[in-house]
Amino acid sequence: MPKRRTSYSAPRPTMRTGKGGYQLPRGRARSQRRPGATYLNHSQGFGRRRQGFRAGGPNTRKPYAILAVGCAFLFFVASIIWYLNRSVEITYNDEPKSVRINSSITQFIEDNELADTYDAGDLLAVDDSVLERGGGARYTVTLNGEEVAEDAWGTTLLTGGETLAVADGADVYEEHEVQATEIAPTVTIDGTGAIEYVKTWGIPGRSEVWTGKVSGITADRGVVQEVVNCEIARASVYPADNKKVVALTFDEGPSSATQDILAVLAEKGVRATFFLEGDAVEANPAAAKAIVDAGCEIGSNTYSDTDLTTLSADEVRSQIARGADAIEQATGKRTSLVRAPFASFSLENWTQAMDLVSAVVSWNVDSGDWLLPGSSEVASTVVDSVGTGDIVLLTDNEATAGQTAAAVSELVDRLLAEGYEIVTLSELIATDEDLKDAIDLSRVTMPENAVLPTLPAETTE
Questions:
Q1: Under 8 Å between Cβ of 356 and 335
Q2: How far apart are CA 354 and CA 338, in angstroms?
Q3: Of 20-34, 70-84, 242-256, which one has max mean pLDDT?
Q4: Considering only CA atoms, which of 414, 333, 350, 370 is closest in space to residue 251?
Q5: Residue 362: which residues within 8 A CB-CB, separation 6 or more?
Q6: Pick from 271, 277, 329, 266: nearest CA to 299
Q7: Which of 87-91, 126-130, 226-230, 349-353 has the lowest mean pLDDT?
Q8: Which residues of 120-152 are buried (b: 16+ CB within 10 A; e: fewer)?
Q9: Which is it for strands 195-200 and 230-235: parallel, antiparallel or unpaired?
Q10: What distances in angstroms separate CA 151 from CA 49, 105, 106, 139, 311, one per listed residue?
Q11: Is 281:303 a contact under the CB 8 Å cutoff?
Q12: Sequence-distant (≥ 6) Cβ neighbours of residue 96 within 8 angstroms
């Protein structure tokens, strides 16, 4: 009876010997390649396709990205070139005109072929005769109303919005030597009032004689710059709306009474203006400083009690400068406001020292306190005489020290009772619509091109 198996068992794979004597399972043998045979390996083929997808995708897009960046760069460069060379509008000889931005005037003339459009000026001798036709300026060029010199045409750029005009060239004088003569300004004084100030500063004129270097001709060209004569104005203060204001001023201080006067003013709530003598300030600098600390105004009574009209020019300037120096050293403030001793300040004094003063101020009402009539009499003299806009003279020296403080106390009370406001000189001037912008007591307003004037011929004969 034949033998039968009751169950199936898969045959065991046979082992074969590989290189090196190792035995490999039979199933592994399939992975070996027979020489000359062709095999299809799906997994490896798929793997190559995936690998090609990963590496080949970006590589195929890279040229397009480079191209896009290049185009953007070219567009950027083209935009810059367009912006730098764009056209702008100007007005040329009253007509609208397009020009390339930042063109120079020279380029504009060349681009518009203006060479034969306008006639050149002539070259003239110093006596105005013609030396050479067409030897003058090639064109006359104005930009925004200002003439442009020929040597600036190449550097003056048009950026848009300008008004440019080109016309026939101007005549030009030959090179010449100049003999100049300065014409000194004279000075006059006009008006009435307690305040004197420079209304018009003196500006020198100029006359010239020319000698041509080409023609050899000498010609008197006459006045080439007109002289501006100096004007001194006198004025009184007329407060707007007839406001009742008055200024109290003190001369010849400081004195031993100055502190008492300041105490009265502070008690009454008013301020005043003190004209200080330089020698008195040097003797009592603390009192001078107290005036400034109290908020009062200061001016100079020059250095000493000397009539300026009797002094030389150098002495006048010394009196004014030394007085201002002493005040500045004691108070820290420089003043150019002057009250001349005895109110004597002549037209000649103005020619000697107007560059040192902002104004010369006298008074409208003299209290007469220097006569020592007593405090009540001083107060009555002022109150009976004063009007709105007036400047009152009081004295702050050792001779009047006994009555000054008492007189001020009574005077202030009576003025306030009359409805007056008591102010400093600067505040008084500020109430006058005509004077407030014409006078600055704090500084000298002399222009740089101004000079000290001379007296008119009739005053020196």
A1: no
A2: 11
A3: 242-256
A4: 370
A5: 194, 195, 339, 340, 343, 391, 393
A6: 277
A7: 87-91
A8: bbbbbbbeeeebeeebbbbbbbebeeeebeeee
A9: antiparallel
A10: 76, 11, 10, 12, 55
A11: no
A12: 89, 90
Residue 220, amino acid: D
Task: Please name which of 268, 222, 260, 266 lies closest in space to residue 398, comparing C-alpha atoms.
Answer: 260
Could you give the percent of the chain with pLDDT greater than 70? 84
- CB atoms closer than 10 angstroms to residue 22: 9
Q: How far apart are CA 384 and CA 63, in angstroms?
A: 107
SS3 for 39?
A: coil
- pTM tops 0.85, yes or no: no
Which of the pair, 189 or 83, is modelled with greater confidence? 189
431 falls in which pLDDT band (50, 70, 90)? very high
Structure-token match 């150019």, residue found = 336
- Token pair, residue 57, equals 């995708």
Taking phi over 0 as left and psi of -120 to 50 as alpha, with beta for the rest, 368 belongs to left
Query: Which single residue is written with the structure tokens 């082992």?
Result: 15
The predicted pLDDT at position 402 comes to: 80
Give me the phi and psi of 2, to 5 degrees please.
-70, 150
Q: Measuring CA to CA, which residue among 243, 173, 245 is closest to residue 208?
A: 173
Amino acid at position 319, single letter: Q
Task: Rounding to the nearest 10 degrees, give the CA dihedral for residues 317, 322, 327, 328.
Answer: 90
Tens of pLDDT along 264-289?
999 999 999 999 999 999 999 999 99
Q: What angle do CA 102, 105, 108 make, to 5 degrees?
A: 85
Distance CA 354, CA 213 (A): 42
The three-class DSSP label of residue 226 is coil
pLDDT in tens, 368-400: 999 999 999 999 999 999 999 999 999 999 999
Domains assigned to the chain: 109-173 (no CATH), 177-233 (2.20.230.10), 235-460 (3.20.20.370)
Contact 156, 163 (CB under 8 A): no
Q: How many residues does the chain have?
A: 461
Tally of CA atoms within 13 A in the half-sphere of 58 that contains its CB: 3
Q: Which residue has the tokens 């083209």?
A: 78
Tokens 């009062």 correspond to: 296
Q: Which token pair is 379?
A: 């107060």
pLDDT above 90 for 19: no
Tokens of 63: 């040229």
DSSP structure string for 98-153: EEETTEEHHHHHHHTT-TTTS----EE-TTS-EEETT-S-SEEEEETTEE--GGGT
